[in-house]
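Memo to structure team: turn this sequence into structure tokens by end of day. - J.P.
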Amino acid sequence: MTTPENILVTGGGGFLGFEIVRRLVRRGDRVTSCSRNRYQALENIGVHQIQADLGDAEAIKRACLGKDVVFHVGAKAGVWGAYDAYYRANVLGTRHVVDGCRQGDVSRLIYTSSPSVVFDGGNMAGVDESVPYPERFHAPYPATKAQAEQEVRKAGAHDLRTISLRPHLIWGPRDNHLVPRIIARANKLKRIGSGNNLVDTIYVDNAAEAHLLAADRLRETPELSGRVYFISQDEPIPVWDMVDRILAAGGKDPVAGSVPFPAAWAAGWILETLYRVFRLKGEPQMTRFVARELSTAHWFDISAAKRDLGYLPKVSTEEGLKRLARWLRDRNDRK
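Reply from structure team:
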């Protein structure tokens, strides 16, 4: 059994962050969460909470002080919004975390990145970590996450032990992003493109486990510092099959009908233009980035994570979907 450590988790009240926190608490670590809001679920398991914005350099520096490990999970996600807001949270926020780790003498930083940092708009079938960053990004989220990942990798190659993880399409109980969006659009969704494009996903428990493995392996093997790893279910599945299975878990009918990619891309361009010109609230039903994401392959070779981190997805997609269905039923029963 390892000696308990003092650990900071940014975004500890979020979907992935909370599962990481819960696992750390379970094994006896002393955990602090740093988020913009306070969360009753964290109170319930005795986690110390710091309310701070990632853009506040001094607050982040204080949060990192005295910690052995920092899991930097907090970020601004999404497919639409002002670039400056993404830059503040994702690039400046990560820079503040890296600086806080340096000044606070933190031994290890585990950063939650995204496979979208290497998405160039085309198919990504079985690619590994050697694939380069694209010359052009199609949305603020991947653009700023790529800059942030490079900051972490640069620090890991010099004066701070780091590992960056790229989980793809995290889902499961308590999901506040992917699953609710799919279920809310039941009976409105249309398949884009052929529907045969394969994608990787990752169940939230497996994503959290990978983060703990990365922190532990980095302590044992400092030579891993600066590296980046794809992590997934290691079960590529046609994207619309996965959408249908999530809909089924929520008691909804499968997607009916399809739209050719060029039509979806054109609709995205028109909607983006209208939202920008008229400064409409919310986000467009379709964007060019989403059209590309839903019509291209996104699955990855995770052999490096298996080899270096000892990562294997313990919860299968089938089992994860059963757990998701139970959680959705329970939540509906409570309403």
